[in-house]
Amino acid sequence: MSVDTSIALVEAREILDSRSNPTVEVDVVLGDGSIGRAAVPSGASTGANEAVELRDGDQARYGGKGVRKAVANVIDEIAPAVVGLDAADQAGLDAVLIDLDGTPNKGRLGANAILGVSLAAAHASAAALDLPLYRYLGGVGARTMPVPMFNILNGGKHAQDSTDFQEFMVMPVGLTSYADGLRAGSEIFGALRKLLHEEGHATGQGDEGGFAPSLPSNEAAVEVILRAVEAAGYRPGEDVAIALDPAASSFLVEGTGKGGVTGQYRLEREGRTLDSGELIDLWADWIARFPIVSLEDGLAEEDWAGWRELTTRLGDRLQLVGDDILVTNPVFIARGIAEGAMNSVLIKLNQIGTLSETIDAVNLARSAGWTAVVSHRSGETEDTTIADFVVALGTGQIKTGAPSRSERVAKYNRLLRIEEELGAAASYPGRGALAGSPAPT
Between the CA atoms of 208, 306, 251 and 357, what dihedral angle is there, to the nearest 10 degrees? Predict the structure, then answer.
């Protein structure tokens, strides 16, 4: 059969994500019969400037979270506009989708509708050319496996009655292959389960698969993870390091942090309120005492002055990742670069809404010498696009939850298969993937 990458058919449906909420799934069929499918994730801790996730708002159905409007937009409006276009011209297709929506935040058609079509077209084109997605998107140079960030202890909006800070992660920075890093994450996860159980803590899991114990302080979470690392037979700071995502916007006191005003951050678990400088002091103290190599959203999304101070003080020692403040958007990334406000960006496809714009965001960050961390969302599906995407772009870091729950493990297992396909050509960057992180002492 000859290759025909023109779009012949676009279908969409409402499916469920890992939090039992509806999301959009799209199929794109090409002229040669090749099929691509993509399911769109959904976040709980979301930035104010993210592209719009269109929901129905009908409280009588899925509590208002249905996505029938987004599905209808794919079938009734997007499909007629893209049938006949070349799916292999990703930038051209995405430009049509952006223009069709006509809003700055994809609020008319919904970023969930647009992204589903954008990603499904890429999958279909890869299938038509008989290439794995990572090779189709990344070419012959796609061989860098990512260092995983395993979110093994959940708090904040991802778990109830747990820590103020949202994510406590382990990174296998000192190992020599992705497969070995995955094994370390799994073994540490098992050791943490055992420790928590022996000490009388609940071992229920949060949205991203990590445990959500009720601990006396935020610091206690780091301490128990380090004990789990040792119990699993690894050396903290050498084999395995700590990464944090406090999601500081979620504990910013309402009414502060706007227009450059110093933020006030309320740590309910510890009964204290800190201003930006005091919270930066806390992070400086933690990285002096614990093997922490990456800090995401250590300050709130409007606290630009605080971010500049944070990077001035800690940027030469720590990877400082902007998520809510940058929302995978080149406009905000450019501001972060100009202001020297961080040294890394979190990359979430559904924050911006098309594959092309996401690639542009990664390339812009790289042009400034930043790192980029490809990320899942708390509401995920069995879709493994980001596993191929991180190898295609060669960013060297992925964040996709604990090594538990099938919607998380699907991505980790896909990466195992990619590493096996690459064989001796596979590269695992370890600590070298990080920004601002010196070698262990």
Answer: -40
